[in-house]
Amino acid sequence: MRRRGKIGFWGLAALTFFTVSGGAYGLEPVIGSVGARIGLLLIVLTPLLWSLPVALAVGELNGMWPVEGGYYRWVRYGLGEFWGFIEGWWSWLFTFVDMALYPVLCGDILAQLWPVLSGHPLAPAARLTFILGFIWAAGLINALGSRWVAQYSLLSMTLVLAPFLAFLAAAWLRHTAAPAAIAGVRPPAGAAAWGLALAAVIWNYTGWDNVGTFAPEVENPKRTYPRALLATLALIVAAYVFPVLAGLRLDPATTHWTDGYFVKLGVLAWGPWLGLTMALTAVLSGWAQYTSQVLYVLQLPVALAEDQFLPAALQRRDARGVPRAALWLSTLLYSLFALASFGRLLTADLLLYTLALGLELAVLLRMRRREPRRARPFRAPVAGAGLWLLCAVPMLTAAAAIYYTAFESPRFLLIGAALALTAPLWYAAARRRPGTAAAVMPES
Description:
- The protein is mainly alpha-helical.
- The protein has a single domain, classed as Amino acid/polyamine transporter I, CATH 1.20.1740.
- It has helices spanning 9-20, 28-34, 36-64, 71-79, 81-118, 124-142, 146-173, 191-203, 221-250, 261-270, 272-297, 299-306, 324-337, 342-370, 385-408, 410-431.
- The longest helix is centred in the N-terminal third of the chain and has 38 residues, at 81-118.
- 54% of the residues are buried.
């Protein structure tokens, strides 16, 4: 029986859904950059090359160490204090960029819808006001506590997926397929287009490790995490592939596919009412993704503050268990990063996340060798060379995406690299202070 106040299977599945996905919104640039066939191939292959290996690795590590702070604590124990700090710092920096993507994407969706509703473009100042309101309202939701966020995510998941079911039905039952000839002649995708497509599709499958940071708030985490991760993976793949296929049936002209284009496809499928409904649920999806992910984000500065790498005020919690100083500091930082564009944010986001993920996979490899008899309630079903391949495939996939994004946004790739280099500098400064905590072994 689930104890009152704990997050159960369905709550964790909903939080994972919004931490990783939130629906097909955000996939439009993939189709628009490289076309329908290659875009669909990327959407189908990425779960095998990226999501499944990461989910299996995270399931095993979470089973061994269901501790607050998640991957920061795993790396700190497995690789030592220095690399543990680097993991925590890179992961926190990654959230500055990643969390800004959601309000920016929703602002792009609103900009697509606004001319349909009002007959004139959305003013830049109005878009910015919407983005900032989005960020700070989500901060208020998280101030209510984690269990409320889980319940809100479960309700939001239902509301977000429902319009897509209507969209699928309308695309196949109310319309004949648009002639392929209207797609026109498409020039070969260049390096920049490949970069945007790869970065966008990986971003839409990223975040499996993030739900591990609040493990103590999950009921029976050693059993619940693997089940919820694998079930959510199947749901996300279906929630991506079928809407894209339906959209291509309505409009195979992939040059039309830009951020927020599912809203216009909804209008094509069943009139303005469905387009408006999809736009509203797209914003709800982005807000639910953002709101759910704040829950894991806050544990990073809290864990770093507990180990005296950040000011002690960031670890203090109120009566609901919410670290308010960490919450409002993070909200302020995300507001600043949201001033950049979606495509440029993706570049820095992917670099920082990949660096941190590499350390997590290194821990998995080391613990299999160093402590093979340690209790593992869930074990990735590979060993030896298979385990190395499991870890290598997602890293090579991400490396290809980073290589291609360098052609699209070299400046933001350099910004991401500069942010990554701040980690050893901050560690050196923090270690000079007396009393910095030593590495602590997580409980089994």
